[in-house]
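WARN  no MSA supplied for this record, continuing single-sequence
INFO  ligand: 2-phosphoglycolic acid
INFO  echoing inputs
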Amino acid sequence: MKRVPFVAGNWKMNTSLSEARQLVNRLIPLVSEVKDVCMAVCPPFPYLIPIVEVLQGSRIKVGAQNMHFEKQGAFTGEVSGDMLKDVGCTYVILGHSERRHIFGEDDAVINKKVRKALEMGLKPIFCVGEQLEEREAGKTEQIVETQIKRGLEDISADQMVNVTFAYEPVWAIGTGKTATPEQAQDVHRFIRDWLQVRYNQTLAEKICIQYGGSVNQENAKALMDQTDIDGALVGGASLKAEHFSSIIKAAVQTT
Ligand code: PGA
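INFO  complex generated
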């Protein structure tokens, strides 16, 4: 069974409001004919409401780039999953390497966020990936396994159907260096095998595992042609409507 591919754009801390609107207004007609691919954009918090409005009636969903694990309260500067749901978000990126490494989020915090997101009816895009030294030391699988095991603690099979994985080797993010399709496929297969052992085969076959890290319109197809690569989490190239739409179209051809 081949899964429906899912391509999401992680805008990070980029664009002005008018650029954000322009980006989605350009993207809508470029992908209006695309079928059988799930699509999402993840703008910065202040643009979620206007972007949800612009995308009303299109098939492009909206995700946030982070959330807090509490529902509400005295957490200055934070945004809850309820709030994201309330303003029309479908997805939320959790465990991104920039959150892990710049903001010190550990697996336990990420696990709380994943659990809360699922409770709120948001679909997490759960990111994992090794750093360059870890890959060079032959520790990729060990690192990824620890991140998955801890990040998904206490999550049932029923909840897991709403989780998307993003394998993002840290050394490939924003660097222009992508993992080769084979390197990525190996880790994707490892994740799927892990899911089969922890949950069951049906679930493991259903779960979408995106690749992320310098995906662009040139390398997207070769990556997504791999058996266990079901789409992409795109940073830099998602800021240009033409580039992002080409990546989405590359996902179609693999189905
Ligand atoms: P990149 O970012 O495509 O710019 O490497 C990917 C990501 O961080 O999700």
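The radius of gyration is 17 Å.
INFO  checksum written, moving to next record
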